[in-house]
Design goal:
Layout (H helix, E strand, L loop, with lengths): L1 H15 L4 E2 L4 E3 L5 E10 L12 H13 L14 E10 L8 E8 L10 E8 L5 E8 L1 E8 L4 E18 L12 E6 L4 H15 L4 E5 L2 E5 L8 H8 L3 E2 L6 E5 L4 E4 L4 E2 L2 E4 L3 E7 L2 E3 L10 E3 L2 E7 L5 E4 L5 H9 L5 H13 L3 E2 L1 E4 L1
Parallel strand pairs: 14-24
Antiparallel strand pairs: 1-13, 2-10, 3-4, 3-6, 4-5, 5-9, 6-7, 7-9, 8-9, 10-12, 11-12, 14-15, 16-23, 17-22, 18-21, 19-20
Helix pairs in contact: 1-5
Length: 365
């Protein structure tokens, strides 16, 4: 309970001292985004921890195809290497990436390989959703775990069948997007809110001139670059994204039931309500007794059941009143007066929400 009080008190202090936020931290520019890439490749150089080709025939096929492209004929040859593994390679092509730029790639085994540690990714084309090749990946893999095994035991730390290749993909094709020719630019708020969007519109017009920004909906602000004449859109966005705005957020209570974590927003309100909480515990214990006759006497050995059942009811908190307050600190003080543990507090908050006394969005993970 003390941990919960400290956490909520910290959040209260943070909210009270909150400063305006830059627009670049609140919104994305429409059209400026990354593109997902995927490829199917081969990792070589593993120390006997690769795919078993009997269980992963696709590894043998890609290995044979690679060797044939290199001029090595493996037709009708029975080769069973244990140092190769088939993998899926993924990457994100960043916005405005130019030919020759390098990006990081992630590698994950799709066969029964035990570890990718020490392996090297062979040249792998990376395709986008349109089927075109935008990058080619190759390089040494940094595995994220390790695996060691013997005849009777094995030890695994992390996930040895995944890894990364830093700067392992080189961009071969650029995305056709000319930002300098855009006349109308849209800002998309990451957390749509009418109040925040209106404040962003007002801040932009106050800084750069009225009529430049236009509020379209709770998540979109349109920027008409033609109002400023012949202006570079990239330079204009560079000025807009550093304007500070105080964001507005809806009242929320976020509950993580698995870890017992509760996070409340500053605007959470609770109407006047009475709460009672107690626990009922039922315990059933089995202690069977073996009954057997004396030596050389007639009779059979039997198991006599013996059961002990009891019901324990904790006194609970009785009825406690949580008055409707106007600040987060007073709401927290009212809830803390109940004297319950965090997991019990979760049940109380859900019950208060069901009763209609919790004026906030309840999110349970």
């Amino acid at each position: 309970m003390r941990l919960l009080c400290m956490l909520l008190g910290f959040l209260l202090c943070t909210a009270a001292a909150a400063a305006p936020v830059r627009i670049k931290d609140l919104a994305n520019v429409d059209g400026v985004r990354g593109n997902d890439l995927i490829g199917y490749g081969l990792v070589v150089g593993l120390s006997g921890s690769g795919d078993s080709l009997r269980n992963s025939p696709f590894t043998e096929e890609i290995m044979a195809g690679l060797l044939e492209r290199l001029g090595v004929n493996v037709t009708d040859e029975a080769f069973r290497p244990k140092n190769v593994a088939a993998v899926i390679v993924t990457a994100t092509l960043p916005p405005f990436a130019r030919s020759g730029s390098q990006v990081d790639v992630n590698v994950a085994a799709i066969g029964d390989a035990k570890s990718l540690m020490g392996g090297t990714l062979v040249m792998t084309p990376l395709n986008a959703a349109d089927g075109e090749i935008y990058a080619v990946a190759q390089g040494s893999i940094l595995a994220s775990g390790v695996e060691a095994s013997g005849d009777a035991a094995s030890v695994v730390q992390g996930v040895p069948t995944t890894g990364t290749v830093p700067a392992g993909a080189r961009v071969e094709r650029e995305v056709a997007f000319d930002f300098s020719q855009m006349k109308t630019i849209r800002l998309a708020l990451r957390n749509p809110d009418f109040t925040t969007a209106a404040r962003v519109e007002a801040a932009i017009n106050r800084k750069l001139g009225r009529g430049l920004a236009n509020l379209m909906d709770a998540g979109t602000i349109s920027i008409d670059a033609s109002v400023l004449g012949n202006v570079n859109p990239a330079r204009l966005i560079g000025q807009i994204e550093n304007i500070s705005v105080e964001p507005e957020t809806a009242a929320k209570v976020v509950i993580d039931h698995k870890s017992g974590t509760i996070v409340m927003g500053e605007d959470v309100r609770i109407s006047r309500v009475a709460v009672s909480q107690g626990n009922l515990t039922l315990r059933v214990r089995e202690a069977p007794v073996v009954s057997q006759p004396n030596p050389f006497s007639p009779g059979n050995t039997v198991v006599v059941p013996r059961t002990q059942a009891e019901i324990t009811q904790e006194p609970g908190i009785g009825f406690a009143e949580v008055s409707g307050e106007s600040s987060l600190s007073e709401v927290v003080a009212g809830l803390n007066a109940l004297g319950v543990r965090p997991r019990e507090m979760i049940d109380i908050l859900k019950s208060i929400h069901t009763a209609g006394a919790l004026h906030a969005q309840l999110i349970v993970n």
